[in-house]
Amino acid sequence: EAEPPPLPLSPGLMWLQQRDGGGSLRHTCEQSDGLSRYGWLMHDGENFGVQEIEDEGLLLKTEFVKRPGGEHGGDWSWRVTARMKGVGSPAPLLSLFFYVATDGQGTLQPHLENRTRLAAVTGTAEELGRFTLTFLRPTAESGEDPKYASYNYLEAASPGLHRLTEVVRSSLSNRFVFAPPGGPRRRFFAVDAFQGLPGEPPRGRLLLHQVTLEPPATVEVTFE
After folding, report:
1. Radius of gyration over alpha carbons of the chain, in Å?
2. For residue 6, which of 65, 74, 103, 219 is within the disulfide window of CB 3.0 to 4.6 Å?
3. 23-68: pLDDT as tens digits
4. Where is the Glycosyl hydrolase family 63 N-terminal domain (predicted)?
5. pTM for this one?
6. 60-89: per-residue pLDDT in tens?
């Protein structure tokens, strides 16, 4: 069979509940992850969708809304809300990994704040033209108060979309400290440096924005 053509741009989400042993990195709800449940609550296939994922006491809700505009199918925004179900205080730290990857075609340009927070990615892709992906700062669930978070950033040559989880897993280090004002200091795992995976030459690029925080919180991403 002929291989499907590479997608010009693949955005996605991974998450990690920070635990002493590192926890387990989740990505796109693979069956083997043993998630309690996941699935679309509602969507119309095109303009909006709401998905809920339950993972060991963590509830993740992802919502996307497409807005008309642009020459290539419109802009959209994507909101991820995380909360814990019946867990004591303080809640375990949660890391959300928002990424965008190319598989051979297209260009990606990172825009960093303070050398650690990936605020936006601009780029070009054959079918999309020029685009901007913006990572907004997390808010409390009410959507108004800013939420304290630690930020980490990874830029790597990608050996292909099928190995992105391995790329991220191999880049994690627990040398980082979460230090909210007036709160306990905690070590956590974050993307640090990627040394490359054996066996596959790089085909594209991966840019990844890691947000580490205490749920509940909401993070929004816009695509223009």
Report:
1. 17
2. 103
3. 777 775 444 444 444 444 444 555 667 788 888 888 999 888 877 6
4. 9-144
5. 0.86
6. 998 888 776 655 556 888 889 999 987 676
**Rounded Cα–Cα distance for residues 12 and 172 (Å):** 18
CA 174 to chain centre: 18
Domain residues for 142? 10-25+89-223
Instruction: Name the token pair of 189.
Output: 């795992």
Angle at 113 between CA 105 and CA 220, to 5 degrees: 70
The token pair at 182 is 């007036």
Contact 217, 91 (CB under 8 A): no
Q: Is 115 within a domain? A: yes
Does any domain span residue 177? yes
Whether 5 is covered by a domain: the verdict is no
Token representation of residue 124: 């070009």
CA distance 38 to 58: 12
Cβ-proximal residues to 41 (8 Å cutoff; 6+ apart), any chain: 50, 51, 52
DSSP character string of 149-177: -EEEEEEEEES-GGGHHHHHHHHEEEEEE
Helix (H) / strand (E) containing 187: strand 186-191
Question: β-strands 129-135, 117-125: how paired?
Answer: antiparallel
d(CA 93, CA 186): 9
Number of domains in the chain: 1
CA angle 77–75–79, rounded 5-degree value:
5
